[in-house]
Amino acid sequence: MAVILQVDFPSQGPFGAEMSQAYQQLAESINQEDGLLWKIWTENSAYQEAGGIYLFDSQANAEKYLHMHTARLQSFGIDHIRGKIFEVNQALSAINQADFLNI
């Protein structure tokens, strides 16, 4: 069953185009993670937060990624990392144009 992983954490940037340039290689490497179907990068410069919304093919793969990603962020000195995993209700999501899930 597909799951959503929601991650956010304090960030002093970069944001916007600078973020896109700075993290392009990281974004490309995330495509290699087990079970990743897609990721949406999130940022809020006004509140100094960043993170992402991920779709994984299973709870186990989402948990594995969250553990690795939390450790990576902590190695950069980032604290207060929040990660939550949610099951996807495919039937209701499809009503709201989430038919791209194809899972």
TrEMBL record:
Pfam families: ydhR. Gene3D superfamilies: 3.30.70.100. InterPro entries: Dimeric_a/b-barrel, YdhR. It comes from the Bacteria. This is Mono-oxygenase ydhR.
